[in-house]
Structure to design on (326 residues):
């Protein structure tokens, strides 16, 4: 947390004063390793031809990687653990012009879940080497999915699919 | 939860026996309303020309929608509250052929976060009308972001963006 204090707000920004409601638990499944060791070093958006990053799974989740190398692109979800969670309106350029949090891909959101499409380069045991991330080094990892564009459903279609 | 009992497993499926680690809290920001009132009625994948669904924000988060109607496509994240969380290997067709959880987009995953790209049809106060969802009616909503394909970063580029 950068500290949800109104002193940290830019011109025009506003916060929710509702207390955080702990409705469900996220469990960290591993850690993301990137070259970006400070927030200032992080790019605004990862590039699919950017530097290699590592998705290091905890050993107990490694079996769940079976078959993942069939996919060139993955959706990666991670927990932006340094982000405040109470901003309603944000001013990305700090100029007083604001947009709502849900009209931005800022890391600051009620549930600080980052989502990147990455290119899978290779697997090394319980680690995936990928390109395309923009998050801070040591960000907690929470999910890996085949990218929806490339994914073909394996289970049989259901009645609602046959529109 | 469908109950993480080994009696519910299909041939070839395997589970993690590690206890759930409550590393972070998710707060529900609203509710997703769809025509799919049972799991059997849900399609495998939502269609961008499918039925209208509703993202009903809690009133305290409504201001964070400012500017969202500028986007035709949104990424919607939701909490698949009925999913077990311990499967490592899954058999989508129930035929003994398995794939790892991270090679599938199944709702059953260590963090049951669903991710859909939706088309924004219109805003009605604190509710967004969208198409493209496949989740159960009354699924808790956790985030809304502009779809990454359409989103242009508004903040100035940083040094790591100028590769």
């Amino acid at each position: 947390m950068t500290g949800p204090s109104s002193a940290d707000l830019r011109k025009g920004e506003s916060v929710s004063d509702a207390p955080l409601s702990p409705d469900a638990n996220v469990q960290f499944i591993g850690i993301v390793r990137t070259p970006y060791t400070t927030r200032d070093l992080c790019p605004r958006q990862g590039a699919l031809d950017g530097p290699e990053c590592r998705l290091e799974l905890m050993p107990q989740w490694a079996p769940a990687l079976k078959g993942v190398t069939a996919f060139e692109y993955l959706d990666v979800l991670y927990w932006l653990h340094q982000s405040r969670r109470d901003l309603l309106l944000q001013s990305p350029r700090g100029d007083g012009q604001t947009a709502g949090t849900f009209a931005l891909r800022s890391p600051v959101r009620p549930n600080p879940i980052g989502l990147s499409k990455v290119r899978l380069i290779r697997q090394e045991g319980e680690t995936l080497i990928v390109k395309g991330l923009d998050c801070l080094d040591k960000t907690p990892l929470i999910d890996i999915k085949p990218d929806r564009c490339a994914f073909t459903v394996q289970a049989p279609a259901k009645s609602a699919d046959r529109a």
DSSP finds no helices and ten strands in chain B. Chain B has a mean pLDDT of 90.
